Amino acid sequence: MLYRNALSCECCPEPGAGSGVTRRDVLRAGAAAFATAGLPSSVFAQPKPHRIDVHHHIVPPSWLAAMEVIGRADFPLRSWSIQKTLDDMDKAGIAMSMTSPTTPQVTPLGQAVAVRVAREANDYAKKMAVDHPGRFGVWAMLPLPHIDESLKEIAYAFDTLKVDGVGCMTSYGDKWLGHAQFAPIWEELNRRKATVYTHPTNANCCVNVVQGVPDFMMEFGTDTARTIASVILSGTSQKYKDINWIWSHGGGGLVAFAERFQVQVLSIPPYKDKITAEMMNGELRRFFYDTAQISGAVTLEALSKLVPISQIVYGTDFPYRTGSDHTKGVTAFFKGADLMKVDRENAIRLIPSLRKA
Q1: Domain map of the chain by residue range?
Q2: CA angle (193, 195, 197) in 5-degree steps
Q3: CATH C-level class of 50-356
Q4: How many helices and strands (H and E) does the chain possess?
Q5: What is the pLDDT of residues 161-197, one digit of tens each?
Q6: What is the reported pTM?
């Protein structure tokens, strides 16, 4: 269309002169277009999206309405849409995103509302997956800390919706995931050989600890490390070996606290002679850790020294960060086979059905 318009221009002595385009330029471009007309479109196509994002937030309408009521609907949530999600994925080369609502999920809502909103959110997430085949997986939201109701939602989510796993907070009130209260949940998920994706939240102990410093800056990473300690030191992760745990943000503060996990806590009661260094390291190295919010070289270097590359999975924290942010950082640090493991293959080992992405 550009060339036709230039050639048909009658206001300039030489067609296209007003734009600096000469007849020779037009003819050369036309010849090039003719020469390439028979080439397959794949020659010019962008690489096929292949990444699997295990840390990707969605905003189901009923959940957003509940967040509005309790004053937790911040700007990224209010402005979220499915199209923005797909656009961000395409730009970053993400084939599939595993979806979940972010903190606080339904924890503060009260039992009846929590049960309803969790069910509606899970139905919404599944519909997204059905409407966009191969683009979305589902981490089901549970109405925790309500145990019986959560067991019912596990049954519905896995048996009816056929979800890929569950998404939990790192703590509920003043209880972390290794607390005995949650044992029935882990027993059932262990029976199902389920994947448990976790996301940090505000613990009762630690809200507005430092004035002017937002909780997500310090407390989220600390709460992740707290709950990792909880599931190991309580014996939960050893007892329920068939659960695959994914810790957000590279395990939060874990890399900074790792030596305390590996040395100090094991040398004093009550864990001395009960939990060995081999046991501790075995658990730390079998967990999975996502790259959301840790895509810089410093944090990726620390994590890759603590755990094998086989345990690191790609995550973005959309809509709080973009996929492109993380693709840039991850691809700058990991190369070749290691990059493919982080981008895709490690997630597929967790959930083989994701191979269709």
Answers
A1: 2-42, 50-356
A2: 160
A3: alpha beta
A4: 16, 10
A5: 999 999 999 999 999 999 999 999 999 999 999 999 9
A6: 0.84
